[in-house]
Design goal:
3 copies of one chain form a homotrimer. Chain A is an alpha/beta fold. The first copy, chain A, is built from 12 helices and 11 strands. In chain A, strand 8, helix 8 and strand 9 form a beta-alpha-beta unit. Chain A is globular.
Chain lengths: 337, 337, 337
């Protein structure tokens, strides 16, 4: 493993291998494995879980880390190629990435989607360029349409709660004051499909996942024996569900059209997930969310504070699985060897 | 000791015990005591001393730390229960605290008072909720009406300068452009009373400390043989003083009324502490302040730069005593054992 | 070496000694040299390279560090003496520096020029005061008119690329949306002169380096056998150049006059360095820049992405030479001893 950019690069065998290493490190900590190793962390966007858990993961393996936040204590950084930099950005990733990479043994980068042009966001131009500029292992801390650390942690959470590999996984759109990126829904739909699950994407009209995202999830499902469908039928979606994964994202029918997004969102203002919606789900159906979650906007208090919720465990697993990722990328050999 | 939230939880014996450990660690550093231990630091408000000294304290004991600052590189965090989160906060403490606690062995939190409703601030609703959500030891890095790290450091500073336990401790209100919280005056009045001192709170009319704060300090005084009085008589207050502790705080007579606070502050605009005020104090009367201090607004340069000032030593002692707090909370056993 | 404030304090022998130590540490890492040592980092201005590389340098030598950024998570800090602090600054360096110094074994400070009064900026009032207040070794991370870490790294880069000591070093003014400080041009002109180079400062009329900066560089040249001239003749400047060091700075003829600076800058809008300018330079003439660089404003893409550019190597060398600086300041003895 040279980078950690996409669970699709690993396949299900690769995922299971990493989860095995994560379990091993939970049992047998390896507190000097990364002694002398440095993780650089570059955050173009806010973070709580990733920011904290990545630093802790390095510390627990004996390494260190540093954080750069363009625009907050550090220069604004341009990602477009060929531009005349007479705006707010004083620095370009063509310098920033090679320089930061020279200071560290692996670099983690968070760079959300621009949210203006769907084809462009799907192509991940910023992240692809960053990857081409980075001569040390690169870790995707959430890009335009991917979030492999979250997806890996979520797989582990499904395992921890013994959700069957063939179980029904409902990825449900949820309300939010504004359009959020497609990274988590894309990564999570793919992850559940790769795990072999019956994936149902439930969303209002206009919020369907783009075809390339669905196609990628379906290719994973085809290999694993799972399936991926989309629907706007709430009752059908939740019937018999093992897991409901709530997530907010923007209008895809008119991607980047803020006014249309607002109108579509007003029509879907009742999409706050609540217990009554899950009447047809399994009794032990779990509620998942990648966090942060806006209470009583995306998900009602009653669900988040109720017995279905495993959202905190998902976040806890971020640390667990990222230790495995960093160990695999940076340690000389596996601890069990 | 399971948490470090209030010197009142410790009593004077508990404080002396911690100060003994602090002195021991100054003599005999224990640089691997907290190897592998992680301190999470959550700052809802700015900091210089606490932010630096807490990180250094962990480092000097062999541990590590991480910092989360809601609104700066991290999501704005809601503390109210039951609200519909359609404002600026993307995250709620009901998720943030359990998640951060899962990444660390102890969590330090700074969360200032709202400054709108006195009864509410005195009840510490945010901090009480945080404590209920945190399954690892919690350290109060300044809450609505408490600042135990500062109070503990100040006690040590009084000891370092051999201020008598029964000495006269004048907590003097000082000018500031706007209302500041009651945390330091409350914590320091209680600390001095617990140490057995003759505590005089000097303040303009309308700025009296709220009854629950005075009552708590008086209960401590009753046990220790000290006393607590309030006055607006400057000469009487400073006469024979061993210590003058300058501190700014808001109008309490009309708590949360910004216009009334401004008017009261205009009437007290001469409350910049200066040497001439201390004519009746002891020759070696010390000037204390928790910092940051606005020079020539709260305290004149002549005092801060003069021989009475021990404000830098107070800040230095933050590191010293916090190492003891963290050692007691997180090390397996005391170093002298 | 008690502080690291100016290459002029070291002389060329001192520089060569540090570069020797840097090379030694590259060959023979000393990962526990600074165990238990703490570097405080105080940034009044944004940073990417310095912020990351200083933390990494401490980590690679076994030490730790903390970062304070006034105005971002920490109080705004006043540097003027004697003022009445009723503005935005809650804290004064007269407290902040002694307090931070008490928490660490060395303190690094970045404090850019005010850019209003040339004589004042040349006198470095903030940095001089900080130095007088700091009882631990102080490291200049860029002050009003100096940047010794950059200059030391640049010397190493010149050595790495075997640029002759007597080679021609053209410091060329470059375009920028607004006036930048004189710190890098001053430090780099002095460094190249101290190395014995033929230094040519190329700039539009009105942007000449102030006499005290040129005089200092010329004193260094006089000792080393180098030379320092200024010109606005581009072809003459680049003819036979071994190195072109591009750098932006403000109008010096009317220093601090923003309107005049804008007008002068409009007249110099074509000063974007490009390959065609270097027709008369040596075939292997190197392009240097301290970064961050605004692409296609200060320097054209074709140069930054072309074979002449060593800007990333300059930044990489920041880490290398700063490890030597910190080792010399904080380690008990040199590793080779």
């Amino acid at each position: 493993m040279n980078d950690f950019l996409d669970l699709a690069d690993l396949g299900s065998d690769g995922v299971l291998d990493l989860l095995g290493l994560a379990a091993h490190l939970q049992q047998c900590p390896d507190p000097t494995a990364l002694a002398g190793r440095v993780l650089g962390l570059l955050f173009f966007n806010p973070s709580l879980r990733t920011l904290a858990s990545m630093q802790v993961a390095m510390g627990k393996l004996g390494g260190t880390s540093f954080v750069i936040t363009p625009g907050t204590g550090s220069w604004n950084v341009e990602t477009q190629v060929g531009v005349t930099m007479n705006g707010t950005a004083a620095e370009h990733i063509r310098e920033a990435i090679p320089v930061l990479a020279s200071y560290c043994d692996a670099l983690g980068v968070r760079a959300f989607a621009e949210g203006r042009d769907l084809a462009e966001d799907l192509a991940e131009p910023a992240f692809a360029q960053i990857a081409s500029l980075c001569r040390v292992p690169l870790v995707n801390l959430e890009s335009a349409v991917n979030h492999p650390c979250q997806a890996l942690a979520d797989w582990k959470t499904l395992d921890d709660f013994r959700v069957p590999n063939r179980g029904k996984f409902v990825l449900s759109w949820a309300n939010h004051p504004r359009a959020l990126p497609l990274a988590v829904p894309a990564a999570v739909a793919h992850m559940a499909a790769l795990r072999g699950m019956e994936v149902v994407v439930l969303r209002p009209d206009g919020f369907g996942l783009p075809a390339p995202i669905l196609d990628k999830a379906r290719r994973a499902a085809a290999e694993s024996g799972g399936s991926v469908v989309e629907t706007s039928d709430r009752n059908a979606a939740f019937a018999g569900a093992h897991v409901v994964y709530a997530k907010e994202w923007g209008l895809t029918a008119k991607y980047g059209d803020a006014a249309a997004d607002v109108r579509a969102r007003e029509a879907a203002v009742d999409w706050t997930l609540r217990e009554s919606w899950l009447a047809g789900a399994r009794e032990n159906c779990r509620l998942m969310h990648c966090l942060p979650v806006r209470r009583n906007v995306a998900v009602a208090d009653e669900l988040l504070d109720g017995p279905r919720s495993v959202v905190v465990q998902q976040a806890c697993n971020r640390l667990t699985v990222q230790m495995a990722v960093l160990h695999r990328l940076l340690a000389g050999a596996d601890p069990q060897d």
